[in-house]
Amino acid sequence: MPGPNQALSPTARICPNCDGFATAAIPSGARHRDGSRILLRVGCGTCHGTGTVPLRPRFTATDVEVAV
């Protein structure tokens, strides 16, 4: 079990578009026979419903080529 100060994962970060709330339930206005609302579940287009996106690779000085 992760501790209180431990990060989620070093290889993932929270999606900037949905802030980690990857799926939204939107009422359609219609109702089921029992009277409950029909909900449309829509996933975030950026993270595809996971709530996280992969980290971008960092560039170091060894990765940069200088043309002479």
In short:
The protein is built from no helices and four strands. With 68 residues, the chain is an all-beta fold.
Q: Report the C-alpha radius of gyration, rounded.
A: 20 Å
The share of residues in helices is under 10%
Q: Could you state the order of secondary-structure elements as H and E? A: EEEE
Distance between the termini: 53 Å
Choose one word for the global shape.
Answer: rod-shaped
- Counted beta strands: 4
What number is the mean pLDDT?
79
Estimated share of beta-strand residues? 25-35%
Please list the strands of the largest sheet in the order they lie side by side: 1-4
Largest sheet: 2 strands, antiparallel
Q: Tally the helices.
A: 0
Characterization of the model:
The chain has 68 residues and is mainly beta. It has strands at 12-14, 23-31, 37-43, 52-54. The strands form two sheets. It has a two-stranded antiparallel ribbon with strand order 1-4. A hairpin with a 5-residue loop joins strand 2 and strand 3. The protein is rod-shaped, with a radius of gyration of 20 Å.
Kindly list the characteristics that best describe this protein.
68 residues, mainly beta, two-stranded antiparallel ribbon, 4 strands
Topology overview:
Blueprint: E1 12-14, E2 23-31, E3 37-43, E4 52-54
Antiparallel strand pairs: 1-4, 2-3
